[in-house]
Write the structure tokens for this entry.
Amino acid sequence: MLHGKWAVYPLTDAFMSVAQYLVRRMDEQDQLIFVKPNGYPIPEKPFAELENDRENQVTLTEDVDMAIRTSAGLMIADGTIENSFRTKVLTKAKAALDQGKSVICALALTEDEVQQFRPYGEQFRYYTNAYQDLPQLSVTNAALTSPKSVIIGVGRILPEIDSLAITLAMEDYLTGAGYRVKTILDKPYAALLGMYPLPDILYNGSYGFTDVILELNHYIEALESEHRPDITLIQLPGGMQKYNNGIPSDLGIYSYLLSQAVQLDYLFCCFPFHYFDTEYLRKLSHIFSVKYSCELSSIFLSHDMVNEHSSEEMFLPVYFRVSDAIYQKHWDFLQSRESQVGIYELAGSYGRNFDSVKKALGTVLPAEPESSRLNPNPIEKGEAKAKLTALLNRKFQIPLDVLTEEHFTSPLTAPPFFFGAQGLTYLFFEVEKLFQTRIDAERILHQEFNTIEGILQLVSES
């Protein structure tokens, strides 16, 4: 995650869901300056609904030079950035580096572009989904293993539909509900958000299907072994099936391979606006139950519609946004019909997507984790101790020479820690977020949260 004061450039619709997620996860001392391209139609509203008590922490501007000059670092956003505009974006990145700023690049770079930034060393960071850099099992296993966590897949009929927005909203809702969640994104920059990318072995064409399936299975097994999540949330790669003869959507091959690597427990799918009825959804759910061994739980209906005639000529899907009146009329029609598949909105608004996700997941998961089924292995104390001391050092500036076991039973409100009531409350919420757990707030009043040892005990019991 980004902490401190950062400029994010260029902000387009392709990165909007990530931008909104970053705002949701800001700390009170963070500031984000989002820079949209000159004349790009992004209103303040998508951020206004998220800011809440974050007044003056979020800025939207077109002045990229000002944003770089006044920030500690620059993040290059992902998106369809080509030709002369791409040159401009990379030039601004070099300008930031020359000013001594840190630069994080979420945009996928060519090898030639990577070479241009090598002289800047660790000052410039970009992301890769190279398999050798990701978690792997220490022992090669020639067999598939069954997942220990609940597996939720979020797919889309067309690769361009924003399943990322729904995946991020699901991760946000599930962690807030108390589940331990590990999320895998179809994005190399997943690590920026504290998540994991799908490994490039899926796409590079150097392996047969059997090897790809085995390696994907072992990758997920390695994540489960390291983190022991209640839920593994996966943004499924590519489209899920052919849309029509002009838009094959990679025939759903990549999603299919992943579904063979790990059994999906629940399947959600994002749709473009389309004049289907509930009978179509019933048939599609049956097709998915055969192809992916999992019926559709719910769909999320976008406001964007495919212009099929333009797509057939260009061999690429071209979209336009339908009017609110047309969307609402078809929405009312679908809601008036009985359906075994839930139908929810896929919006440009994080808040509305969060509401859609909350309703959709509420039909398949309990409101809170059932620890006996979903979390049989509590976090180990050694792991918890390392995470907690790192948090105290990084977020609260407690020196490492103070964070020794001789002080683990010392009150946090006394020397050498000097936490006040506000700081202790802030620590409480940071601990819940770090360990993805819920702690009874009354236990602060009972002084159980007033030592490092006490916090570790609460975490082990939660």
In short: Residues 310-315, 371-378 have pLDDT under 50 and may be disordered. The chain is about 40% helix and 15% strand.
